[in-house]
Amino acid sequence: MPRSLLFGRQGISSALWKYHTKQSNIQGKRPQVLFTQYWMKVLPPREGMPENTVMFECSFQMSRTEIRDYLKELYSLESLQINTEVVDGERFKYTLPEQGVRTHTNTHKKIAYVVLKDKIMQYPSKEFFAPKTVEEPSSSSNTPDLVPAPS
Q1: Structure pTM?
Q2: By CB distance 3.0 to 4.6 Å, which of 2, 11, 80, 95 could disulfide with 115?
Q3: pLDDT tens track for 20-45
């Protein structure tokens, strides 16, 4: 089978946002549901941030106009101003027995500061943004102890 049939015209190494999909114009056919090619994640507010400003972590490919369109189409949020910045990833050192001290850098992040129009952001409690911990199940008095079956 030719390579172009397997991977499309773009090839294997093309980025996801370069692929185009065709929309059908046939009447009576169910419309296609197209997912966005980007993502955004709400971040907890910083000290002293205005109430109408929201921090998002977003994908690197998003421009300011794409962030504005994303928020308007999906969440019906009007924005007055959008500022973006790229934050360096965290760096940390670790030691390997035979190779010595190594450093590792996590991936960089793109942060968008969105000033909302006529709205105030109501953040959930601080526990919402705290990292989740897995609790080990403890033996309680109302659950019976397991007894092996007689053989």
Answers
A1: 0.59
A2: 80
A3: 555 555 566 666 556 678 889 999 88
